[in-house]
Amino acid sequence: MDGTFDAKATARLTGARFLAAFAELGAQAIEADILQPAEVLLDLYGEDIRARAFVTHDPLRGEMMLRPDFTVPVVQEHMAGGAEPARYCYMGEVFRAQEHAGPREAEFFQVGYEVFDRVNTLDADAEVFALFHSLLAPLGLRAAVGDIGLLLAAIDGLDTTDKRKAALKRHIWHPKRFRALLDRFAGRSAVPASRQALLAALDSDAPLTQAPMIGLRSQSEIAKRLTALQEDAATAPLSPNDVAGLETLFAIADKAPKSLETLQELALTMPAIAGRVAMLETRFNALDAKGIDLGGLDFEATYGRTTLEYYDGFVFGFYDASDAGLPPVASGGRYDALTRVLGQGREIPAVGGVIRPALVAQLEAKA
Amino acid sequence: MIKLGVPSKGRLMEKTFEWFAQAGITLKRTGSEREYAGAVEGVEGVNLVLLSAGEIPRELAAGRIHLGVTGSDLVRDKLADWQNSVTEQALMGFGHADLIIAVPMCWPDVDTIEDLDAAASAFRAEHGFRLRIATKYHRLVREFLRDQGVADYQLVDSQGATEGTVANLTAEAIADITSSGETLRANHLKILSDGLIHKSQATLFASKTADWAGCDAAKADLSERLKIAL
Q1: Whole-prediction pTM value?
Q2: pLDDT in tens, A159-179
Q3: I need a labelling partner for A126 at 20 to 30 A (CA). Which of A108, B36, B118, B163 fits?
Q4: Which residues bind L-histidine (chain A) (predicted)?
Q5: Coil, helix or strand for A262?
Q6: CATH number of the CATH domain containing A36
Q7: How far is the alpha carbon of A177 from chain B, nearest alpha carbon, in Å?
Q8: ipTM, two decimals
């Protein structure tokens, strides 16, 4: 590698190649501002993005953020008046502050492709994945896929209250808290002493606190949660079968055909996931029809669980198997829920992905 | 010359002077009362630099001072990957303070991080924005809450009088240092039972980035006198 200056020029040229390939397929090239309003992104992603974003102040527009990704501005542009169905491509720098020293860059190019299609969602999943697969084929990368929707469906199928399901779904992206909740709901972890004392006090009608009310969280919000805690305490624990099924599902990690077989078997005792498993099969068949060797494809049930929270369906990534420390060379997935949030009532099924041309250029130089 | 950075005023400075005095090293301020100049007696080749405790982590990381006394909380909060730029040489046994998360006493339903997380979820749904936690320790608090898998909160910056932010409606909870808990109680706040983020105390740090060339004699002398391994 000849220093940052040349590396960046090479990355831009490499990215331009992908951008041209996307445009040639009919994707409309679009630009997004580098300075994005911070509030929208912070509200969507929370503190994680603040730690990783360069936030700055604009005298007229207030708190702004150096673009941490393209997905949000692309969705916003589409929502503001894009035709349907639509295919977009783009290229530019994104900025991610790094809190730890290492190989990850604070500023790098992304070149991406996004499909907004209301009708043929499974085809669109297959289209995006197959496109990335063929463009990256010369690099011999490891490809992995998953489906967050499968996990969400499994939680929906649990025999428990909607509140418990919502709590589990909310933490699907935070494995440690998810585990703690699952243990609590399964009755496998002790109820904290303070919770037991509180529930006893609620039963005896003893006054809970003499402290004056301060802050924005109101008496009625507190009362609502107290009721919720009482209801939850009266809720039966998850059945051992339910928990075992969930754990079996989360542990699935194998080549695509073997994983599908395991999933189909699991669906016999977990009917809630049968629909998503059938969808996965349709997706795999579509990939097979496009000439992708499923035997070389990894399926990991929890894939995408520790990345940004907006993926809620099919997810994928391409990795240089020889360097586990590097970020994925390309990654993407379906983010229907994000369009629902940004669309304020409107939504459009969307799937897409990005390639990091700098990593591609490095691998090509090595070859 | 080894440059030793020490807090420039208050109890932290006095206690630091006492700590070094026990090893027979006299640190003192010189000149007028308002002048930040100092002198070292009892050991050769060491210069005293008086600094704000909050700036000492940065000066250590930049290698502009070799040794520095500051709170372990400040080093962890102000320096990314702090172990890469400084080493802990001695826990000095004073300046104790706990970085904790506190919520209003009038929340009987919240005692643990799990409760806070659940309350944050409901709060966001009710108010349309994330539950605000006021703090000046952004890195430590964020890393703690991320590790705990807490969602639906936001940090709001508070450089002082943090305990008042809840009553002033600029935050719903706080993360701040406390030693006796008195200010918390006076402001009707309680500490979460599993909300201890870091137990801080005054600590002698050595810079990994400073130029230690030509400091060998002073280094050996200090190591022996302070029973540390420079």
Answers
A1: 0.90
A2: 999 999 999 999 998 899 999
A3: A108
A4: 69-71, 96, 110, 114, 305, 310-311
A5: helix
A6: 3.30.930.10
A7: 5
A8: 0.88
